[in-house]
Amino acid sequence: MEDLLEQSALVQWRIDGELHELEVVPGASLLDVLREQVGKTGTHMGCRTGHCGACTVMIDGAVAKSCIAMAATLPRATITTIEGLTAADGTMHPIQQAFWDAAGLQCGFCAPGILLSTAELLQTNPAPNDAEIDAALAGTLCRCTGYQSIRRAVGEACVRMYPDAAGE
Amino acid sequence: MADSPDGDLKYVGRSIRTKEGRAPLIGKAKYTSDYAFAGQLHACIVRSPHAAARINRVDLSAATRVAGVRLAMHGADVAALTDPIPDYLEPALFGGKAAAHRCLAIDEVWCYGQPVAVVVAEDMRTARYAAARVQVDYTPLEAVVDAEAALAVGARTIVPGWDDNLLMHVPFMHGDTVAAFESADQVVSTEVKIHRFSTQPMETRCYNAVWEHNTESITLYGTSQNPHPLRLVLAQTLRMPENKIRIIASTIGGAFGLKMHGHPEEGLICLLAKLTGQPVKWLESREECLLIGAREQKHYIEMAVNNDGTVLGLRDRFYANTGAPSACPGWGMAFLTGLTMPGPYKVRDIDVQMHAVSTNKPSWNAARGYGKESTAIALELAMDNVARQLGVSPVTVRLKNFIGKDEFPYDSPTGLLYDSGDYAGAVEKTLQAIDYDDCLEEQASARESGRYIGIGVAFELTPEGGAIPGSMVVGYDTSSVRVGPDGTVRLLTGVTSPGTGNATGIAQIVADELGVDIDAIEVLQGDTNASPYGFGNYSGRSTIVGGGSAALAAQDVRLMIDKVAAALLEVERSSLVLQRGVYTSTADSSASVTFAEVCYAAYTRAYDVALCIDPPLEATRTFRPPSIRHTPDANGNINPYPSYSNAAYATVCEVDVQTGQVKLLKFAVTHDCGKVINPILVEGQACGAIGFGIGGALTEDVRYDASGRQLTRSFMDYVMPRMSDMPPIAVEHHDMPNPGNYLGLKGAGEAGVGGSAAAVVNAVNNALQPLGVVMNELPLTAPRVWAAIQQASVAPTPGGDQ
Amino acid sequence: MSLYPSYARPRSLQQAVDLLSGLQGGVVVIAGGQEILPSVNYGVLMPDVYVDIGGIEELIGISSVGDELVMGALTVHRDIQGHADVQRLAPLLAQSVSAMGGGWQVHNRGTIGGNIVAMHPLYDIAPSLLALQADIELIDAAGTRRLSFADLLADSSHGLGTKAILTRVFVTASPQSSWGYYKLKNTSGAYGSANAAAVLETEGEILTAIRVVIGAAADQLTLVSDALAGLTGAAYDAAAGAEIERICAQAIGTPLSDHQGDGTWRRAMAGVVARRAVEAALLPATGPDS
């Protein structure tokens, strides 16, 4: 069975809408491959232990910490980074626009975790309460805002994405 | 996205985030680690596993044999090519001791984690793998870990040649403390222990040095708060002329003082690039970032008080464990703690003895609050203790002792000149914001049902914009405003943004001064080849001096444009009206020309309508806050600060007495930062700093074993607040404009850490007062609180049950 | 320890087992990676071979047969939390999986098998599995075997070694029992300081069986069942609560002492979380408080 052993792994990923075929080194994290082999530097290294969430991406529509996902274990996947939230013509996703308008960021380093987790939350929940927002964003640390402006921006994003749900 | 100025509607005062906003949200901001260059090499640093040891031998051979390794060096290799790193702030300026700071340790290591060797390889994995193969033969030495033990007779001196471990002792004395204590009704003693907690920005440090072969110079892409002063430090360390070094401090992912310079890796990475002739990058791991310390202090406070609550005198003997000597400015925090005593209180007779102690713990760097947070924690815990001892409300004790709002400018006993403030007013606003009376009722009814709710108040004075004579900590800064022939604006400023959004604040000021749309302004910060010489970001100075200097430059340029407009329209300048990008005249209703047309004329008609100005439409101005005074007064004191921001805090907590867990239910702050340029940015600063204070008060803690090895190595152990840990924060403003500064600015950013930490501790003590528990040792982790409750229930403290 | 590790992605359990049986040391079995990558990233773990079992379909999914819940080892936490079968047959498990840290990002990737195999004393799933008297299934070259989770814990190599793969987890529902989970941690982002899973049986107000498992307080799980037998045959009251607290604290042999708290506190908290888990079990109307 040792003939199964390979020195590298081939992966086929649709990243932010674009198809990539890559040869990745065993042990390399999805984070390192995205940043170094694909140039997706919008995804950030904050701790490499899965605590901070700055490296968050979506794998097949679900948020994940790319620093603790081994690239080789994802032979085929659809990966959305923070860069993929933006439309091809540069139009911001309503969540991005809401965070901009409500100043839901300071340094922006944690934005991948905050925005993509918000996106997953709002996919299924048009009007999350505080506890639901807490749960969705529990995996991401922000050191600048004290989270107050983030909470406000998530609320603003709900209004933009679901204008009809507001006030219900 | 922003509306253009419309009539009286100005940008200043509005909550917007136009600059530095879009790029990070679409993942396109370029942080330092996002830069990669052709031929990029990677460095990995070998660090000491011992707190104190003699280095007998460093064997690099196994590392250099690894395929892909380009260079490996030890301390002696590097020392042969570099000079010691100059201090950001020399202890000797304050009568302290000097030590040679090297990029890599040479004969001895002074702390756990000190760099000992470095490996450069073609990729990071190889560099790390090879670094693990470097063999270092150490003889461990007795580690000096505790600050007071470090001063004991016979303690091993951590720096060879020093006669003891006291980096510096400074007395801050005024008046007649002996008489004050003799005449007082009581003396209240409080021991306050502040632990080591760290700023930990989400972006760790990163340096990527490029050797520019064409000019034989270095370009360093670096996480630096202060690119120009760093350039001077690198020039001296690397034995290069300053004009052969360019520093580009790109978008910064949070700094909070940690990215001020003096770090050994800064010069080291530049040297490696020079030696290899290729770009060399080093990205700090979180484990490495957690080595950078701050704040650890032990205070022995005595307050001489009268039974009516008046504080007559203050004695404080305190010891700051500043770790191993370093070129970073962290140790200065201890000095500031002493200098800013006795904070907002009108106590004239003081005897404060500051001891900055060197130990074998890793070094400090600056941390948000820069020592003033420790002043607030020490004083505010002591004030609550006074209130407890006298049996009066903590609010009453503070109001009794505050400097009155009609007493400004106020000469502090340490020689500072407080510009303005209304401390009592800020406290009253805060109590209103938190519904203090309702809280008291809730507390009383909760106690009846066996629940422990506490209310804590605290005050914090945070002088901002500091300047220390003879150092690169200066009080002024410089900006350039350049308006192009199409009417768009390039703003360059010497202050940098650590990710706070100050570019937006400064652009708001310039937009108003120039009368242009804020979207027409591009701000550039942090490139030493482009920006005017500047000192970067520290001490809440960016809007005071960055905004102030940009306003002056914008006023100069606006005057030039107005002159050309008047010439074009053939009207008096005083009759001009600029609205929505169009100049009109009150003297001639048919006169009209766009701002852009005027700018074009300023460049293209230098011999007729623009003869009245010197093109181009550019001005560079410096704002030097007038109230800084470096000429010593009769007592030998200087005033290093132009402005004295302040804030009042209140919080409500519930303590689970079965577990010791503390839950914060409410929080309010009233902040006086002078004129508010942008409420949402100021609120962001306040809430972020309060997050630091809450985390520091309750959980964040860097721990060591008895031999000085650091136990806290990841975010598993260093636990910072998550979203659900933060209570909603009511932010109120109570602006008392600084008379000396542009628009009355005072500065924001540092206030929040100490005051909020103190409010939390006071709230917990207030909650547990019926049990006789008083805790003045931070952090108040659940196990500590529980242990204190157990101890109190075994032996009730006198006066406990009130 | 290798700079150039190799990698295999077997497509079937048999292939995986054959592969593992032929390999020497330095092998790491990986799926979600949530436990392994932090150590790899910190340089603590440098395997020679990664065997990726993530492609083995047989290991994925939740099903139920009668009162028995069957979960493939690669089932991720998020799927367990929301799955109707888990909610119906083992709500205690769903609750404890929801209490895990790391946020949605980790819940979406982390697997129940990885969580069990990690045998980390601070994790949330194991106390519930032991309280629910779960079984697990292993496969190695000798074949497949099913054993109780308790027996797995009792085995010093956890029955796994480097040759076996955890394949499935079984929980049999007992409809007459009620349950509670209580997790104590210093702050939202902290790891657990003590947690407890309680499974009770009652007749009317009368306690007829009580089983509590305490985690995160010692380096191994602490099952308290026989010592609590004296509390059965009566209704629960404050005195019973105090007794549970006392007995469960006493049951902790050598408490952990780490960043999550010192040993004295951990022992005391073992008692507190046990009582709170029992109380949560007795209050089904208001839902579990955790």
Model description:
The complex is a heterotrimer of chains A (168), B (802) and C (290). Chain A is built from five helices and five strands, in the order ββαβββαααα. With 168 residues, chain A is an alpha+beta fold. Chain A has two domains: 83 residues, Ubiquitin-like (UB roll) (Roll); 68 residues, [2Fe-2S]-binding domain (DNA polymerase, domain 1). Chain A has a five-stranded mixed beta sheet, with helices on both faces. In chain A, a hairpin with a 2-residue loop joins strand 3 and strand 4. In chain A, helix 3 packs across helix 4. Chain B is of the alpha+beta class and 802 residues long. Chain B folds into three domains: 157 residues, Aldehyde Oxidoreductase, domain 4; 195 residues, Aldehyde Oxidoreductase, domain 3; 324 residues, Aldehyde Oxidoreductase, domain 4. Chain B is built from 20 helices and 28 strands. In chain B, the strands form seven sheets. In chain B, strands 3-5-1-12-9-10-11 form a seven-stranded mixed beta sheet, sandwiched between helices. A five-stranded mixed beta sheet of chain B has the order 7-15-14-13-8, sandwiched between helices. Chain B has a four-stranded mixed beta sheet with strand order 18-26-27-28, sandwiched between helices. The radius of gyration of chain B is 28 Å and the shape is globular. In chain C, the strands form three sheets. In chain C, strands 4-5-8-6-7 form a five-stranded antiparallel beta sheet. Chain C folds into three domains: 47 residues, Uridine Diphospho-n-acetylenolpyruvylglucosamine Reductase, domain 2; 116 residues, Uridine Diphospho-n-acetylenolpyruvylglucosamine Reductase, domain 3 (2-Layer Sandwich), CATH 3.30.465.10; 106 residues, Enolase-like, domain 1, CATH 3.30.390.50. Chain C starts with 5 loop residues before the first strand and ends in an 8-residue tail after the last helix. At the A-C interface, strand 4, helix 3 and helix 4 of A face strand 1, helix 1, helix 2, strand 3 and helix 6 of C.
